[in-house]
# Entry
Amino acid sequence: MTPELQAKIDKLVTENKVFVFMKGSKLMPQCGFSNNMVQILNTLGVPFETFDVLSDPEIRQGIKEYSSWPTIPQLYVDGKLVGGSDIAIELYNSGDLQEMLEVALAS
# Structure
């Protein structure tokens, strides 16, 4: 990964308390897993930003190396990778995701 690409990804995940790399946008998800992520965050009512990896092949590939996580979507809270759709669903169902988001948004 180039230093420029790493800096670009760093900037995206650190400038937003809640950030999702996904296929499509939060208004128009382009895959079921991305849609699940958007629905969870919308249900929790938290502000979040997204990046459409379909619009940038370099980021689409780079984010997998950056996070050491092979799949998309990827949820970041407070600059740290939380995980993909399956992890978000698990954390949502246990109540841990809401708690994590409340702490991050309060800081």
